[in-house]
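Budget justification note: compute hours in this period were largely spent on complex prediction jobs such as the one shown. Inputs:
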Amino acid sequence: MYTQLVSRLLFPLHESLKGHTSTALRDSLDQSQWLSADDIADLQLHNLRKFLKRIGQQVPWYRQLYSELGFEPDKLSSVNDLQILPLMDKSLMRSQQDLLAADDAGPLSRFNTGGSSGEPLQFWVGKARKSHDIAAKWRATKWWDVDIGDRELVVWGSPIELGKQDKIKLLRDRIFRSQLLPAFEMSETHVLEYVAKIRRYKPKMLFGYPSALALIGSYAKRHDIRLDNIGIKVVFVTSERLYDNQKNIIEEVFGCSCANGYGGRDAGFIAHQCPAGGLHISAEDLVVEIIDPEGNPLPLGEMGEVVITHMATHEYPFVRYRTGDLARLSKQSCSCGRGLPLLESLEGRTTDFLIARDGTVLHALSLIYILRDLDCVKEFKIVQETVQQIHLQLVVDDRYNAALEQQIKQGFRQRLGDVEVLIKQLTQLPREPSGKFRYVTSKLDVSWS
Ligand SMILES: [Zn+2]
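Corresponding output:
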């Protein structure tokens, strides 16, 4: 009853007051997911033409580009024609950021991301895109019989988001029954408090980083505390690669399926897993391309870098945006009957834990955020050598100075305790042999069980 009140009345009201169209969008996504694969491809092409036409008129950077290329969105005959437009990476986006906001954009919110490559990016998000991302997540949780208004615990934690936990937000979260467990301080005491909270709160869904949820699961198991008998329907994980050992411990301890959701703050909600196992792309609003290291598009079934075009971003476009993540587009269709295309073999970004001097297990993002907000830091790599020593490699511009260096060291020590922070400036950071960049590595062992 309460869930229906929230899902049908309170949340839609809240969204329309914010100027979001997520309720109508979700209704339309609920319908279109059952179209045939061909009909979804037609709808996608139609939406792509409309989106590209709009940014060609309203976004200065694309206006200029189209005229240089002689590009006419009306003549787009398939999504492959997107290849006429250049790939967009973080450095290009950073250098052109003033030309990327649409002339007709409504109010935009600023976002930051460390991204999978560890290069920080600042970008802006409009209401259309927020509405899409909410609607896409809402549709996917409904696949698991979880609706907005059902009790949800979110294991998450950007310090910025935590800072916004003012009274209104707390009240809103209470009404919508979504509560936050901060994922940064994963000491045994904290994790056991989280386990107790999960037992008390009896959420229908858990949502968050697989590493953090697997850690919670492994502590509960070690202390023989059951979490499989309180009615959790699904554990949705996102933002990091989901490893098999994490999936196993999550499913065993929480007594439900662990569903993967692929997306990021920058790229948006890209793909979600359904109960039949398919990782469905939100293709009505997203085009996913897979490219080789030289930037050439790869055929279905081949592994490469994920590039996305998000068609709800006409106010601040993400067109052929390189995510740095590796995956392949599937040739298969899903047995659930949805016509949405599938992604597979997702080698998403990896985020590790670090161990503080007092033994506290910290989410690596807690250090990443310190660097992410500094404009002069172009790239970084953090290596925890021992519990006393951290190596930090930086690529910086000329705004970097001794005071900022002190600020970074202090920030690290606040999180890790009294550690030695050795900073080395480089012109370029080395990549792993796979081409994948791990921006945080701990040489210490944080075991899962
Ligand atoms: Zn499916």
